[in-house]
Amino acid sequence: MPIIANLSVFNSLTANMWVAREFANLSNYYNYSCLPKTDTATLFYYGGNFASYMRLILDYAYVGYQYTGTSFFGCCSVGGEAGRLFDQYKLGQLGTEQFLANIRAKLSFLEEAEYEPDLIADLYEHRSEYLSLKDITKLEDLKTNKIAIANALIEKAWNVKIDFNETCLQRMQLLLSKGEDIYLVSNSNELNIYKILHWYKQQFKTINWFDKLDISHCSDEKPVQVAANPNIYLCLSYRFNSYKTDAQNRQSGVLQGTPNLFEKNLNYLSKFDKEEDIIVVSQWRPDRETMEKLGVPAKNIFTPDDYLKPKLTAINSGGLKLV
Asked: Which of 51, 110, 145, 318 is deepest in the core (most CB within 10 A)?
């Protein structure tokens, strides 16, 4: 029985303001303010460490506003220019290369900075973790490629929102143990997906993960197969232009899930399987309700805690073992 599940069941998401903080820290580290020059000039009146400290606070507030459309204290509701850029990327209206170029234009100091040899060496050593460094094969090439370094730093800041914990690991282990075809519905973007797949490949090395994958922003709505044994597919939201933006979430007051993507995935699978033979796993109630209305039996629809709960079996003298 094929399984349709939310990809976010298997990774943890930090608050958007963590991304804003990373961009602000990046700007402050290289002694550059995110704020327009006319706004930062007054800071230097105070001089010394206080000016630097105040600039970091205001950078954080400014980038937070640009990213989420809210001020540092969450009092404002008007979206910033960078926030619109981020939404365009999430919605698949911008490819990753163009997105990185647009961010570099806003953080132009990154192409002019003098980078420490240790930083460059570290990026090179961990280059497999970065989509933006996938074509770098020699350390010497990276040392002279400031655009690649800038892209990697932007990618790292952007991906700070994606994290993993023991629950994520355990849930994925349990899902893989089912031995069924898996369709993961992703409300995400290419850079986030690249980080998630890299983590899966490191944690689950017995799975036949595919090396050459096209997860780019394009109009192909067909699920992308990323592994075999078991077969694992990604349903990429940005290829459907269906991402629910942060602004929409704030307006509704709740995170509503991605029922439209579940429906599209079900329509695809119904060509090969009957609705009653499909399993649905989602933490969001609208997803589950939508799939039941479309013909998936209620007995086949689960929350993650219900479907991916470890079973305990008695061993020896009353001890317990996870299976």
From this structure: 110
Q: Which CATH class is domain 3-12+163-312?
A: alpha beta
Bridge-partner residues for 227, per DSSP? Answer: 209, 232
Three-class DSSP category at 321? strand
Q: Please compute the mean of the pLDDT values over residues 260-264 and round it to a whole number.
A: 78
Give the range among 12-16, 76-80, 137-141 with minimum mean pLDDT: 76-80
Largest CA-CA distance found in the chain, in angstroms, rounded? 73
- What is the distance between the alpha carbons of residues 236 and 184, in angstroms, rounded to a whole number? 8
| Nearest-angstrom CA–CA distance, 246 and 187 | 12
Domain-by-domain residue ranges, the chain?
3-12+163-312, 16-161
281 three-class SS: strand
- Is pLDDT at 37 greater than 80 in this prediction? no
Query: Tokens for 226?
Result: 């990323």
**270-307 pLDDT tens trace:** 777 777 889 999 988 888 988 999 899 999 999 999 99
Task: Extract the tokens encoding 78.
Answer: 């008007």
Alpha-carbon distance 207 to 129, whole Å? 18
- With H, G, I as helix, E, B as strand and everything else as coil, classify residue 217: coil
Q: What is the mean pLDDT of the chain?
A: 78
